[in-house]
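Lab channel / #folding
Pinned by the channel admin:
"Please post every new chain as: sequence first, then the structure tokens as a reply. Keep commentary short and put observations after the output so the thread stays searchable."

First post following the new format, from NK:
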Amino acid sequence: MQHRMMWYQAVAECERQGEPYVLVTILGVAGSVPREPSSKMVVTGEHSYDTIGGGHLEYQVIARAREQLAAERFESHMEHFPLGASLGQCCGGSVSVLLEGQRGSDARLVVFGAGHVARALMTIMGQLPWRVTWVDSREDGFPQEVPDNVNVHFSDDPAGDAASLCTNAHALILTHNHQLDYELCRALLNVGSASSIGLIGSQAKADRFRKRLEHRGHTAQQIARIRCPVGRDDVPGKRPMEVAVSITAELLAMAGSPTKAPSKRRGVGWPELRSLMQANGDNTLTEHS
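Reply from TO:
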């Protein structure tokens, strides 16, 4: 489905939401074509934004972009499309396009509670490539402005919403209410779909919760998924920002993965560029040794 949004607005929105996308750019044309070089559009897994001319050409480009997203090929490559019978067009020209796959962010965090620590945490998370959902039962508990990557979610039943919100996401329980903290822990353990569970509090609170959860039939292995006190113990301090730094450091260590060594050649190679330029009738190419 195509949406009424310019390509640069779509890029900003995808970056804000951490959604993977492909930026499509017309690099070169020959003959009669629907759009000129530098025309752009954005393609995501479900939507497309702006246009490179419509018709079967655009349909084919969107299909190629979605194949790239489905295969998680977050790379740049070029393709050449003659505008002939195979594309259902009779322009007689040709178009070369650049498809740039952007990874987005698969790091997701759900924070329950809008107190001092959570507010400090949002200041940090706003500078990181995470998609954050911020949950509280007090509608007036959120600040008027939040970072672009933070989605505020008011809920009159946070524990009831926890399972759906936290699937494949890291969960942080930072609320003002110990009973609500306990209900959130139970809800997340019952489903077991959260990537991790962090609970703010002291060791005494952790011990009380463990006994209550054992009484409710949760196994020691399940209960061990809850990190309480949350945060790294080698990051000292009890001020809200110090606790937020400690929690962030723990999250980054948990979410981090070994970085693959980059391939020797990255981006678009000269042979591919030369081939596509020649396909567009550009005879002014010069190759330097």
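NK: The chain has a mean pLDDT of 86.
TO: also worth noting, The longest strand covers residues 21-30.
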